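Side project, low priority. Logging it here so it doesn't get lost.
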Amino acid sequence: MQVTNDMSLLSLISHASVPVQLIMLMLLGISIMSWTYIFAKRMAIKRAHDQTRRFEDDFWSGGDLSMLQQAVASRRDEQGALARIFDAGMTEFLKARRGNAGGDATALLDGPRRAMRAAYQREMDALESHLNFLASAGSVSPYIGLLGTVWGIMHAFIGLSNMQQATLASVAPGIAEALIATAIGLFAAIPAVVAYNRFTNDIDRISIRFDSFVDEFLNILQRQVR
């Protein structure tokens, strides 16, 4: 164990044992990845909210659904998740109506329902991507930091056993550099947990809007085939 009078953060990290430094480096990597996903997911959810609101305004404006479907199909990536769900259902409905003219409503609506549910699941999978990493980072990072702290304290006391006289000045640096691992673990975990809970709530709200739209759109299609 290296004893130093410099208690600055960088000095403590540089004088920590190699296993503790590796744990700190791992936690730093987790933190960087977490913040990357946090910013990317925040932008994606905001974009999904804006695109959903714009499409709902267009859909409920009373225009022709076939024309709306053509407009969505020409710019699917720009229209958003809800527009793609509508496009999947409307495309399948038009195909079913052409191939089953005069058929019963149940047969005509079964295809659009399956198509929209499949599109809905794809869009939700995309929105929920990387949430598992944030959940794992939030739950595991404190324990990884604690492992570094335990290892650092153990290493500090092993070093003290070789000294003739142990003083607070000789103990403090080793304990401080070990506790930094826990601090870094919490720094990585807290934003990940907060972001995960916030994003999960936001995505649940978007999911409810998608579900409601699918049911309402199917009701509109059902009235058209009567």
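Brief comment: The CA atoms of residues 96 and 108 lie 6 Å apart.
Revisit when time allows.
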